[in-house]
Amino acid sequence: KGVLPQPADKLDNNMDEIYDNEILIDVQTLNIDSASFTQIEEQAGGDKAKIAGIMLGIVEKQGKHRNPVTGSGGMLLGTVEKIGDALVGKTDLKVGDKIATLVSLSLTPLRIDKIKEIRADVDQVDIDGKAILFESGIYAKIPADLPEKLALSALDVAGAPAQTAKLVKPGDTVLIIGAGGKSGMLCCYEAKKRVRREILYVRDGGSTERLCTGSLGVSAKNDLQRSTERLQKLGFCDYVFSADATQPVPVMEKIAELTNGEMCDITINNVNITDTEMTSILCTKNDGLVYFFSMATSFTKAALGAEGVGSDVTMIVGNGYTKGHAEITLQELRESEALRKIFTELYA
Predict the structure, then answer these.
(1) 151 and 76 in contact (C-beta within 8 Å)?
(2) What 3-state class would DSSP assign to 125?
(3) pLDDT confidence band for 210 (50 / 70 / 90)
(4) Of the ranges 15-24, 31-40, 117-126, 198-207, which one carries the lowest mean pLDDT score?
(5) Element (H, E) at 148
(6) Is this prediction's pTM over 0.70?
(7) Are 57 and 50 in contact (CB under 8 A)?
């Protein structure tokens, strides 16, 4: 009692009545964050019925979808059903508007009545259910010029490319770990726009690590090859290679080779697995910057690991919100025909 919604163990998810400064949403799709969905999928052994059972259990226990292992949630797509009296005239929303919430499911009161479809390849789950958006909750109206699922997939990771736009400066050498994933491709595009010189990127080894556990089988190897080739064809990267991001020394040696020992000014970590903190730190200059967008990041491993190797890197926690992040991310899909085509094929 008395704590704020994100760290709370349980939220009141009664949707029969809302407070006058809340918005009731009829939920269509949950976009589970990548680290959370990967963990749930592995726990369920890839069985969709078990995935559904785990998700229903999380919401039943907590009144929200906060993964008890990763602590993370995701976001949702839905239709505004009711607006509290105190917000009338204070919000640009109206009943019937289709919106994507830009605050985590780990703090959003949620009720799932039925799980209709699980699209494991894109971490999306279609449901019948309700959710509440607080007065402070940020959101984006689904634009008329982009398909709903396409917009949802990009808005889910909007913080990463928007932070990239803020952090990257002309002349920087930038390393993207997890460059072939959803947030990684957006970050590659944004960094290429900003840096205006050769950029160094790495295609993540996260898929390799998951393959070693045997959880994804042969398809993981095929997916890794396809994502690497996809990234090469996009042309945003000057260097693309596959590596196991949980093995810091080999990746560090490769980066040292490509940069003639200078290492990277900025490293952006987008992976959805654990134990990639030291790879990010060792590949970054001593006075450089590491942006951990991944929700699989351990603060303890990053902080104490950097201390252990005598690294003075600045480390930024991946806040999913930065000013203008939704607009920046959706604009990328409008600007880049190649990026929009890939996102449409994969997520829409």
Answers:
(1) no
(2) strand
(3) very low
(4) 198-207
(5) helix 148-155
(6) yes
(7) no
